[in-house]
Design goal:
Shape: globular
Order of helices and strands: HHHHHHHHHHHHHHHHHHH
Radius of gyration: 20 Å
Strand content: under 5%
Largest sheet: none
Number of strands: 0
Distance between the termini: 36 Å
Number of helices: 19
């Protein structure tokens, strides 16, 4: 691709389209690989005789690695360009997904749990760099008015990836074996890495590196003293608690509670609503701002909608005895999560536009803590009580806390 040196550091319309498709595809594959193991835990766990606690350790271990690299990924992306960090990270999570069946089958007993957990930690560490790199890249290459909309678009790949796992994974599972899911998704991810590298090398280098001065350091103390930043972090963590538990445990919930429900229905139907939900929230967000609402009010409206939809349906899910009602509640909760992508997710670009990559890294590091604590705690609750209703009530309480904190202290104004 030839680019004229016009002195404009931002992407042209054609470049926005190409990078939008590329990053959307990458995020799709990222989530497809992330959700592959949760899809297969009931089957592999039964084959390998895993307890609920064993499954909880394996599912939650991903997030230990995920929290380790958020800030580092954002920092490096702000300094040397998000495109470089993206393809290094993609190589890691693609290969670790492809090789996971070998690790599962090579080890036995307690060694098996430890080694699978270690592999998941590494996979999470590589995936942890993806979103900070993307938000850094888009902040560098887009004007302020385009950032939230573009980032919301490319992050919608998370829903497409989960849907891809449900559709393709269910087909491969019925037609071949659980091994094939890891092999196919790992191979597609590695192929995407090569496309990303080629595309990165085909553009002028000056357009792909940060334009901020090398001596522009993030004022961490000032950041940590700001209530809007912490409201963003806490709200993100509380929403992630719900999302990550559902992402990790829903296949097991339906397997245990409604075994008559076909796996493809559980893995596909609820996620069909997520993409329309993301686009709807983005459209509402843009219309609110065009109609004169401030960014602060807009973010709060969108994020409160997310928390309200999820909290109400968690209560219904805790009480339902019907598989169709359970699927409906889960579908609405996933729809609610789509609003998060136009609420808190782009908020670091509002709060600190010059340091969006590393600030997003800080937010996502703390926000990923429910990944390992919440997912493990859900397994522990099930081990003690054998009650999914208790798990859903715990998630409900966390959602309410996040909603209240962000509603009171959230902001769309720059603090740095």
């Amino acid at each position: 691709m030839h680019i004229h040196d016009t002195g404009n550091p931002h992407w042209t319309r054609k470049e926005r389209l190409k990078w939008g498709i590329l990053l959307l595809t990458g995020t799709c594959l990222l989530y497809a690989t992330r959700t592959s193991l949760p899809l297969l835990v009931p089957l592999i766990g039964k084959e390998k005789l895993w307890s609920k606690t064993d499954s909880g350790i394996i599912l939650s271990s991903f997030f230990w690695g995920y929290t380790m690299t958020q800030v580092l990924g954002g920092y490096l992306s702000d300094r040397i360009g998000g495109h470089r960090i993206l393809w290094v990270a993609a190589t890691g999570w693609g290969l670790s997904t492809f090789l996971l069946p070998d690790i599962i089958n090579y080890f036995d007993g307690e060694d098996s749990i430890n080694m699978i957990a270690t592999a998941r930690v590494l996979n999470g560490a590589f995936q942890g760099m993806h979103f900070p790199s993307m938000i850094s890249l888009t902040s560098q290459q887009l004007v302020e008015s385009e950032r939230a909309s573009f980032f919301s678009l490319v992050t919608s790949g998370s829903a497409l990836g989960t849907l891809l796992t449900g559709v393709l994974g269910s087909y491969l599972l019925e037609s071949y074996s659980w091994y094939s899911i890891f092999r196919v998704l790992g191979s597609l991810s590695i192929a995407w890495t090569f496309i990303l590298i080629y595309h990165s090398l085909s553009v002028n280098e000056y357009r792909m590196v940060s334009k901020q001065p090398s001596n522009s350091r993030l004022p961490i103390r000032k950041l940590l003293s700001k209530a809007p930043f912490w409201s963003c972090v806490i709200g993100h963590a509380c929403q992630n608690n719900c999302f990550f538990i559902l992402l990790s445990w829903m296949p097991t919930y339906f397997h245990d509670t409604f075994p008559e429900v076909k796996s493809w229905i559980v893995n596909m139907v609820p996620w069909l609503i997520s993409v329309p939900s993301m686009f709807l929230s983005r459209e509402i967000s843009e219309r609110l701002i065009k109609n004169g609402y401030s960014v602060t009010v807009t973010r709060k409206i969108i994020q409160t909608t997310c928390f309200t939809i999820q909290a109400v349906n968690l209560l219904f899910l805790a009480a339902t005895k019907s598989s169709s009602n359970a699927i409906l509640c889960l579908t609405l909760i996933i729809a609610g999560s789509g609003f998060h992508n136009s609420g808190i997710v782009p908020n670091p670009s509002d709060l600190a536009p010059k340091h969006s990559g590393i600030v997003f890294g800080f937010m996502n590091t703390i926000g990923a803590i429910p990944g390992f604590l919440g997912v493990y705690f859900a397994g522990y609750i099930l081990h003690l009580t054998n009650s999914w209703a208790v798990v859903f009530m715990y998630m409900f309480v966390i959602e309410v806390i996040g909603g209240i904190v962000y509603l009171i202290f959230g902001s769309g104004k720059a603090i740095l």
